[in-house]
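FORM 7B: Structural annotation worksheet

SECTION A. Query
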Amino acid sequence: MKDSSADTGAAVAAVTPFRPMHLEEGLTTQAQVYAEFRRVLMSGSLRPGEELSLRQLAAALGVSTTPIREALRQLETEGGLEIHGGNRVYRVPVIGAEELAEIRDIRVQLEGMATESAAGAIRPAQMRLITNAYDLMCRAVETNDVDLYLENNWRFHSLIYQAARRPTLLGIIERLWLRTGPLVRLAISKAGRLDQSMELHAAALEGLQARDRRAAREAIIRDITEAARDLTGLLDTTKKGSGRSSS
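SECTION B. Predicted structure
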């Protein structure tokens, strides 16, 4: 039986963020493929509406289509991917302004809570990693390296939320980032957004260093709300242009 999602003419660009996998012992191939897909989605390396081809993914990752298929199915159940079109291909969901507003309101509460908890519990080793992510984002802005920025934007946020030591809360936040991560690339396309975002990241970093729960929380909340505001005017255009292959 032919795999309906394998030969779709999907975008080569959608495979580009994936690197050949170096599989580790003790973990299944599916678990490692799934973790890589989550990383790519949450970091914003894929755009809303991009379609995924099993064959192209298998070639890029250097693994068979079976663990890829299972990982994609798992991500579909979590809302990170959706089935689309008559060929029933997997694609990155396209989010409208109303859904974005709802997710923004939830993120403000949950990520604000996690940041506040992190400010009171953060350890020196964690602070060094967060500072490193911030420094790499600064370098990315200076060199106009969007991919480096996106990777470390997610890393910066996730390290803060991990420092809260609230695993259930972290899991919920990560599922929301599966939905909103692909929008980050779109958000930073707006003129001045990167500089604005870095100012808020600097404020969050300073709040964490000072163990100022309120300052750190407010900086993260502003980062979320201002990015959502910038995105709102762009989403209808994206939605109208969705469903096309970006090849």
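SECTION C. Observations
The radius of gyration is 18 Å. Strands lie at 51-52, 82-84, 89-91.

SECTION D. Sign-off
Analyst initials: ____
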